[in-house]
Amino acid sequence: MNYGEFMETVVKSIPDYLPEEYRDASVSVSQMQKINSPLQDAIIIRKPDDNIAVTIYPEKFYEEYQRGVSLEEILRQIADAGKQADIGGNRNRLEEMVRDIQEFGRIQDEIFVYACNYGYNRDGLQDKPHTVAGDIAAYYRFTRGDYGVTITDKMLSAYGITKEELHDIAVKNTTRTFPGPLPMEEIIGGIPGMELSPGEAPAMLVLTNEEACNGAGAIFCPHVLENAGRKMGGDFYIIPSSVHELLLVPAGIGDAEDMDQMVREVNATCVEPEIQLADHVFLYDTVRKKVTVPGEKTLQEKEPGKMNVKQEDSYQPHKRTGR
User: Fold this and answer.
1) Ramachandran area for residue 316 (φ above 0: left; ψ -120 to 50: alpha; else beta)
2) Is residue 94 one of the residues assigned to a domain?
3) How high is the mean pLDDT in each 10-residue block of the chain (323 residues)?
4) Do residue 293 and residue 238 come from a single domain?
5) Which of 26, 165, 169, 311 is deepest in the core (most CB within 10 A)?
6) What is the Cα–Cα distance from 260 to 256, expressed in whole angstroms?
């Protein structure tokens, strides 16, 4: 079977493999466009009158089918994935989130700023509030535990606030989650076999959040950058390691063009496209409190899907204005 035939068979057959309470569930296929992910098919399973649907991404199952796993086994695996997504505490927490997300006051302290590559995510950002700064963009997510929802334009309109207000709230919340820049030796020292003595450690700091996941949003947080400047003792380069973390290097160390080349090489060989942030370094000016691109008056416009985008000199991170 080709992919289309596989999907038709799954949609038709999967109800027979689901628990009894799903016998009347609707099964459909929708295309999902998530930030930092390519457009992908999703199997949506929804029980009648249920406000929570089970979403399963079939690509990996089709790959298993192509490797020779039987269709019956694939259907069992998909059904098991659906049941796992719907069990006990998960459902209760999701139902609570669905209720809370209807009222901005219930979630405003759990909205955070995330950073992504604008060119790669241009299409996915179209219906979501976002702030473009050169070739990266800030977007905003309500996050609770392991679950999260990206704020959409429709949600923003229902909340009755502006994008700028949303940005300031998300920046304030995000700033509070950052422990501050960590010395590289602490990061490397946590990897078995990679312990370094203080003299061997590079003059580099790592900037990420407590979870070390989607921590590059710090580039939009003025107080986080100012604190980093104090620790660095002056201006510093920001190396966009990925959407998860930023590496900080004193501006007096190394050449920006050489570091740009390093970033491009690492992106090409070690970093998946969906988590790449940019293909060049940034410079943080501690006097002007601005992030710029070294040696460029503007950021070069590039095609969507490549590394990246908007003509802009530099950007001034938003400062909280109060409401």
Assistant:
1) beta
2) no
3) 94 90 87 83 87 87 95 93 66 82 95 95 94 94 89 97 97 87 50 42 78 92 93 93 93 87 94 92 93 62 33 36 34
4) yes
5) 169
6) 6
